[in-house]
Amino acid sequence: MLIEDDYESLYSYNSWANERTVATCRQLTTQEYERKIGGGWPSVRDTLVHIASATKAWHDRFHGNSPPRLLTGADVPGIDEAIERLLAADEALRGFVLATAAQDRGKILAYRNLKGETKKVPYWAVFRHAVNHASYHRGQISTMIRSMGKDPRPTDLAFWAIVNTPQG
Q1: Residue 125 in domain
Q2: CB 98 within 8 Å of CB 6
Q3: For the chain, what is the radius of gyration of the CA atoms?
Q4: Model's pTM, two decimal places?
Q5: Is residue 162 part of a domain?
Q6: Would 32 be classed as within a structural domain?
Q7: The domain containing residue 87 runs over which residues?
Q8: CA distances from 163 to 53, 63, 155 (A)
């Protein structure tokens, strides 16, 4: 069921899009998953692990832990572990976002970036950024998969809205 334009809808879309990307990735052979193609991160594996690690990093930052680095495909070589990390990170961040009261979305998050610099940003900006970031990299995965002659599942926001809006 489609909800209003709010964080619940945004994160429902993000979870749906991640699940579709995961389903497409599961159809790849190990060689295809690891193939160095480029177009952002070197491979589907590197890109999927990056989405998972960056999502987890934002969740961790909200809880006072700024990781010094993000994981790479070399850290998480298997597809099952990468998928598990992505879905767990998505669920954790989604839970935090949806539990944050509207009046608290303007709070300022102070964290250390990957260079060790202290940065400050409003919660609401990170809430939207995390989904935008994942969408950007899901697009890169789709491009890599198309370059292998395969047909990735669509993950567009409008497609999610069409699927979740009664058409009759």
Answers
A1: yes
A2: no
A3: 16
A4: 0.95
A5: no
A6: yes
A7: 7-153
A8: 29, 34, 11
